[in-house]
Specification:
The protein has 378 residues and is α/β, with parallel strands linked by helices. Helices cover 47% and strands 19% of the residues. The strands form 4 sheets. Strands 2-1-3-4-5 form a 5-stranded parallel β-sheet, with helices on both faces. The chain has a 5-stranded mixed β-sheet with strand order 7-9-10-14-13. Helix 1 links the parallel strand 1 and strand 2. It is elongated. The protein starts with 11 loop residues before the first strand and ends in a 10-residue tail after the last strand.
C-alpha cells in the first residue's frame, strides 16, 4: 500500500493485546504498510484511546485480564460515536462458540493465532475499504437528504403561494359559467375546460401541502362516526364535471358508517377517483364501492383502464415515483396524490393498496378500522 500524504489521510488502527511481543510485532508490520498503528495493552485503555481519537479499525485480542475482548467490543458498540468502527478479533481460541460470540458482540472478522501477517493485512485492507465505501455512501445519503429537504421546501413555498390566485381563478370561472347564456358554444366549452383544469390544479396544490403537513407531523386528524355512503355521494357529485364522457358510478347499498376524519377521507376519495378518471379511456367506467367488512370500512375505486403493472404497484404510492403505464410508452411521475392518500389512510391506522392486471383495469382500495386512536399530533 502506498503511504498516505498526511496523517489525517493515513488509516488509523488501534492494536489491543496484553502481550508486549504481539503488540510490537503487529504495530511494526502495520507501519511498514503505511498505516498509523497505535498499541494499547489492555481493554480499559483501549476504550479510553478509542474515545479520545476514534480509529478507523481495531485489532482486538480476546484473552486479556480484567476485561476480555468480547466485553471491550460490546462496550464499543454501545457508544454511538464508536459503534461503526470495524473490529477484527485476533486470538488463539479456535472453538466455534468463540467465533460465533465474536460476531454476536459486533466483530466483523476473526483471525486465529499464530497468524500470518499476509492474512491479517488482507483482512485489514478489506475492512478499511468497506469502511471507506460505507462512509461515502452515508455522505451521499446525507447530501441527497439535504437536497430533498431543500426541494420539498421550495415546492411547498411555491405551491402555497399558488393556492390563493388559483382559488380566485376558479371563482371567476364559476361566475362566467353561471353567465354562460351570454357566450357562444365554443366560448362555453372553453370556460368549462378552464374550470376543470383549474380544479385539477387545486387538487394537486392541496396534495402537495397536505403531504408536507403529514410528513412534518403538523396535520391533526379528527376521526368521528361518519355516514360513509353520504360522503361517497358528495365526492362523486363534486367530480362529475371531470368525467368527460366517462361513466362515474356509485350505487350505495344499505347504511355504512365508519370512524374517520371526514374531510381527510373526502380528499382521499377525490384523489383516487380523479386519478382513475385520468387513466380511464373515453367512454370508460369508474365505480365507487363502500362496504362494511370484518376489518372495518372498505372503500374501492374500480376502473377499466390499462391497469398498473405488478412491478409498479408499490412504487405508485411513493413521492414522484417514476412508473410506466396508463397506456403510455414512456415513464411518468406519480406526483403526490397517491402519496397523500397512503399517508392519510395510515394516519387513521388503515391500509391502502391496488389490485390490477395489465389491460384489465385497476381497483384502488383502502380499509379504515371501525375505531382508532391513531392521530397525527399537531
Amino acid at each position: 500500500m502506498e503511504k498516505q500524504g498526511s496523517k489525517m489521510d493515513t488509516p488509523n488502527i488501534l492494536v489491543v493485546d496484553d502481550t508486549p511481543a504481539n503488540l510490537t510485532l503487529l504495530v511494526g508490520m502495520l507501519k511498514e504498510q503505511g498505516y498509523r498503528a497505535r498499541p494499547v495493552p489492555s481493554g480499559t485503555l483501549a476504550l479510553q484511546a478509542a474515545a479520545a481519537e476514534p480509529p478507523d479499525l481495531i485489532l482486538l485480542d480476546i484473552s486479556m485480564p480484567e476485561m476480555d475482548g468480547f466485553e471491550v467490543c460490546a462496550k464499543l458498540k454501545e457508544d454511538p460515536r464508536l459503534r461503526e468502527i470495524p473490529v477484527i478479533f485476533l486470538t488463539a481460541r479456535t472453538e466455534v462458540e468463540d467465533k460465533v460470540r465474536s460476531f454476536e458482540v459486533g466483530g466483523v472478522d476473526y483471525v486465529t493465532k499464530p497468524f500470518q501477517f499476509a492474512e491479517v493485512n488482507a483482512r485489514v485492507r478489506t475492512h478499511l475499504e468497506l469502511r471507506r465505501q460505507k462512509r461515502e455512501l452515508q455522505d451521499s445519503y446525507e447530501k441527497l437528504t439535504e437536497l430533498q429537504v431543500l426541494r420539498d421546501s421550495l415546492v411547498h413555498m411555491l405551491v402555497h403561494d399558488l393556492r390563493s390566485p388559483l382559488s380566485a381563478l376558479v371563482g371567476f370561472l364559476g361566475f362566467l359559467k353561471e353567465a354562460e347564456a351570454k357566450f357562444d358554444p365554443d366560448q362555453r366549452e372553453d370556460i368549462e375546460e378552464s374550470l376543470k383544469a383549474a380544479k385539477r390544479i387545486i387538487l394537486m396544490v392541496n396534495g402537495v401541502l397536505d403531504v408536507n403537513k403529514l410528513e412534518a407531523g403538523k396535520m391533526t386528524t379528527h376521526p368521528a362516526d361518519c355516514d360513509a355512503q353520504a360522503l361517497g355521494r358528495e365526492v362523486v357529485a363534486s367530480l362529475e364535471s371531470l368525467t368527460e364522457g366517462r361513466t362515474l358510478a356509485f350505487s350505495p347499498e344499505g347504511e355504512v358508517r365508519g370512524w374517520m376524519d371526514r374531510g381527510l377521507i373526502y380528499r382521499v376519495l377525490q384523489n383516487l377517483i380523479a386519478n382513475a378518471l385520468k387513466f380511464t379511456p373515453k367512454a370508460g367506467r369508474v365505480e365507487l364501492h363502500i362496504a362494511s367488512t370484518g376489518d372495518g370500512t372498505r372503500f374501492e375505486v374500480r376502473d377499466n383502464g390499462p391497469g398498473v403493472p405488478a412491478e409498479y404497484q408499490d412504487r405508485i404510492f411513493e413521492k414522484f415515483g417514476q412508473v410506466e403505464g396508463g397506456g403510455r410508452s414512456r415513464m411518468f411521475s406519480t406526483g403526490l396524490g397517491l402519496t397523500f392518500c397512503k399517508m392519510a389512510v395510515e394516519a387513521h391506522g388503515g391500509k391502502i393498496g391496488v389490485a390490477s392486471e395489465g389491460g384489465k383495469g385497476s381497483t384502488f382500495w383502502f380499509v379504515l378500522p371501525q375505531k382508532t386512536k391513531a392521530t397525527i399530533n399537531s
